[in-house]
Amino acid sequence: AVVLREGKEDPAYTPGVSVLTPGVTGHWINDREMAETNYKSKNPDVYKFRQSLYKREVYARYKKGTLLVYRQDLWHRGTRVTPGAQRYVMNITYRRKDAEWIGNWQGGWAKRNYLLCWPERRLESTIANLLPLQRTVLGFPEPGHRYWNKTTLAAVAARYSKFGMDMDPYRKAMMKERAE
């Protein structure tokens, strides 16, 4: 199920809204009913927002052998598998050559460290407290890179500022580029 974007000002796609996903705001719950029960009692604002997404959901039409390709910023969720049936999934990430910051969510260091550090959010805290040069080693675009704009700055700030990440180097480099 997906939520289609309705223009540039769509509230489901504004910067920072991606932090309202289960993998970012708390425990990962891969069951809609359990997740919504949890959000309703523990985070009513997230619950309300997610209910608005469910009203906009559309289901992909498919037949055996269908390939589904979507952007990483698309609101999407899995649906229940019919009892006795199987669903095969292969998560592969494609990117442009100059988009080094995009990686694949496989069993490498990023996923392993994220899962090991999940309850305390240590990985995000560590990333937030690195110097910009240190972050580039992990795949963050350097300050001044064409990746940085108003939207990407807001999205990264929404995820990492609460852990102490200083966005000024990225913001200042972007302003300098625009002034030249």
How is this structure best described in words?
By secondary structure, the protein is mainly alpha-helical. It has helices spanning 22-25, 32-42, 44-56, 109-116, 122-128, 132-137, 150-160, 168-179, and strands at 2-3, 57-58, 75-76. Strands 2-1-3 form a three-stranded antiparallel β-sheet. Helix 2 (32-42) runs antiparallel to helix 3. The protein is globular and about 55 Å long. It starts with a strand and ends with a helix.
> How big is the Rg?
18 Å
The count of DSSP E runs of length 2 or more, i.e. the number of strands, is 3
Strand content: under 5%
The proportion of residues forming helix, as a percent range, comes to 40-55%
Largest sheet: 3 strands, antiparallel
Gap between N and C termini: 44 Å
Count of alpha/pi helices: 8
Helix and strand element order: EHHHEEHHHHH
From the spread of the alpha carbons, the general shape counts as globular
Low-confidence blocks of residues: none
Regarding quaternary structure, what we see is single chain
Query: If strands are numbered along the chain, what order do they take across the biggest sheet?
Result: 2-1-3
Task: Name the structural class.
Answer: mainly alpha
Mean pLDDT equals: 79
What topology emerges from the helices and strands here?
Blueprint: E1 2-3, H1 22-25, H2 32-42, H3 44-56, E2 57-58, E3 75-76, H4 109-116, H5 122-128, H6 132-137, H7 150-160, H8 168-179
Antiparallel strand pairs: 1-2, 1-3
